[in-house]
Amino acid sequence: MSIYDIPVTTGKGEETTLTEHKGKVILVVNTASKCGFAPQFAGLQKLHETYAKQGLSVVGFPSNQFAEQEPLDGDALTRHCQLNHGVTFPLYAKIDVKGASIHPLYSHLTKAAPGFLGSKRIKWNFTKFLIDRSGKVVKRFAPTVTPERIEAHIRKLL
């Protein structure tokens, strides 16, 4: 199964896939608006603004699995991230990124790019996955790796 075939839900509750991002470099991030890493939204937005015309898609998948740091849903979540963090890149519906109910997208991502010492489990908010234009998962970045530190990797793929 291709990353583009995996069903996802938009922040407005519409069923879709990542097909609209086909042929682009994609940065997938599990987000949480109340997380201590939430200031990374600004760096993600800057990447989006700087490289979207060159073919970068930054996409956020909110999750409430880590200390319940994403209490918001849908339009309320989108508005909060726009007003408080300047986010204009797509935020999809809240999903599970670990455990028995892991979303198929994150099951795919974690198998394709294991973390430290081969761990597949997402350990916290703002874990990032970089996907090339063909849909191949190229690299996984820990939550502590800021968007600015990922920029060089993105430029290589663009």
From TrEMBL:
GO terms for molecular function: peroxidase activity. It comes from the Bacteria. Signal peptide: none annotated. Keywords: Oxidoreductase, Peroxidase. GO terms for biological process: cellular response to oxidative stress. InterPro entries: Glutathione_peroxidase, GPX_AS, GPX_CS, Thioredoxin-like_sf. The active site is at C35. SUPFAM superfamilies: Thioredoxin-like (SSF52833). Belongs to the glutathione peroxidase family. This is Glutathione peroxidase. It comes from Cohnella phaseoli. The lineage of its organism: Bacteria, Bacillati, Bacillota, Bacilli, Bacillales.
